[in-house]
User: Fold RNA polymerase B from Linnemannia gamsii.
Amino acid sequence: MSGVRPHRGVIEDEDASTLKLGADFQDAHCLFVSEVKILLDATQRPNTSEVYQKSLNYVTQFNRFTNPDVVREVRAGMNEEPIHSLLTGFETAQLANLCCEEAEEAKALIPSLANKIDDETLQNFLNQTLDLKKFQT
Assistant:
């Protein structure tokens, strides 16, 4: 999504496909949907707001990893080399959210991966992630 947004008097182009996420997200820690689901479940209380309920419904629908131990394993895999040094937090979160089966598919959906990581390394990471997803209980 591309947009123009003023930030402290400066016009800034934002484009996720080129990792131009804007100053607000420059040093942000990106969570993937399954992590957000865990956090929302942990803070669930009666009489929650409509926004909270809509957010919970969204993450419940798009949650790829239902077992908290598997979520931790996926995050740990993202923090291992070479993935950690090659990709940004945004890119790894998108990989976890999309659960692509093939490196080619991941690179088509996340254009910034194209020149950052070779297909074999990416495919190995995707296979590890898919194996974790397959064997969760």
